[in-house]
Amino acid sequence: MTVNGLLEFRRRIYWNPQAGSMAPLDMLLGIQGERHSVGVREMACQASLNEAFVPACKTLERLAQISISSSVPRELVEREGRRAEQAVRRGRYGPDWTNADCTDQTRSSSAPVAWREEMMEYVWNQGSLVMLHKLSNYHRRHRSGRKREALESLQQYVAKRVDMTDYPTFRRLGYDCGSGPTESFCGCLTARLKGRGMRWDKDNAESVTALADLYYSNLWTDYWSQQRPA
Question: Do 20 and 86 fall within a single domain?
Fold first, then answer.
């Protein structure tokens, strides 16, 4: 099945003891191990992100003249979602940090917490450039070792995001600097899981969320471009 309808063709299948079976034409069309082309899989997954599988089938038939049973989008979403989830976990898509990097490691000591709050006070009220200036004063105190590496890493991270962390200007212009947008996005990301009467098991819930993550993070095109044959 392709976006142009159902196609029938003959192809040669090669086999050897080392590699097993191989169909060059399937690889060329991007349907190796699949019954549906990349285009159909992408359209079915995108249609299923915002509505249940049965309405998604009707949408595909009405807008793209693709006639498939309601079980097909579900199977495609589950399979493609698992692929997307694995790709994200391998670091092929998404940020270059993990949730472990966001864990507070300073709870056992009050001095690091006070230092962190002091630095954030500079950022919040005077801007990240002032914080960078304050950090430079610690160079003579930590000339080498893990603390020096952590200090330089923090400076490099903040220096790349000076424009993004100009909180005094943002507040003066009335911009929202809180965590509200992020928390709201969490609701958008899981909206497909919370429809009336919907039930998901853990694996398939993670699959559809992985696809939603790519879509709302503007990585959808990048992912599907990688699925198409070169």
Answer: yes
